[in-house]
């Protein structure tokens, strides 16, 4: 035991990870040991302290994560389920004991390019997880904004933005939108949609006044479940959050460009530096080219346009949903 910390159940689940959901929930509740290197002055003067004294470092004190580097040069954050596991792994280090959500919140503020977390590394039984999914699964909303530097390839923020923009597709959701509604989409704003969002990857000429163009790498492809409708149906889950990247009008029709954010990582996208201008130019070009294409009847049918008749991120009166609702 380590001061009442008992990760026995988690360790047993690591031996046989058949039920990933149970493993994730157990990990979420756990306290883990984070090896750290404290600054030299951290404990200066503690030798003169008496039992019951409140010890305070004499100057600014801090610590660095005692990270590992794998054979490919990737940095890994080691985490241990107990001090005994640290000994088994051969890592002699000071350690901080923290709940997993607190660790995830700490890591998402890191300016270092940690690639993954490694639980019980160099032990007989362990588990690894890339840093972005770890933060996505376990971090909680912060009260303070994150200092995001997406231009720094050494930062976690850079990796989160890369993960959001990589391997994306462009999908559309055409609608006749009142102009006073459209004006509420401010470039750089984050919005949340309470319901499911239907969209299609079939992009042709518009018959409506507005088009939501959605950049995403994690919408559900439901086209295989269609029965003769041939919509190319894709759907974003209820509660999805988006960032408004662009509002562009051409030939009296308007495209509202949205980036589909990865759940629980929206804190990284508050800053407008996270708008990828190349993606904006790409989406604008597709929009302009669509005016030279034929109308695709399947996604301009009465039934399809009815499915797309609600505005994204707001109610039917044009009031934007609260991000925290």
What would you note in describing this structure?
Mean pLDDT is 90; it is low at 54-61. The longest helix is centred in the C-terminal third of the chain and has 14 residues, at 277-290. With 325 residues, this protein is α+β, with helices and mostly antiparallel strands. Helices cover 23% and strands 24% of the residues. The strands form four sheets. Strands 8-11-15-14-9 form a five-stranded mixed β-sheet, with helices on one face. A four-stranded mixed β-sheet has the order 3-4-6-7. It contains nine helices and 15 strands. It folds into two domains: 8-142, no CATH class; 169-307, Toxin ADP-ribosyltransferase, Chain A, domain 1 (Alpha-Beta Complex).
Which structural traits does this protein have?
325 residues, alpha+beta, Toxin ADP-ribosyltransferase, Chain A, domain 1, 2 domains, four-stranded mixed beta sheet, 23% helix, 24% strand, elongated
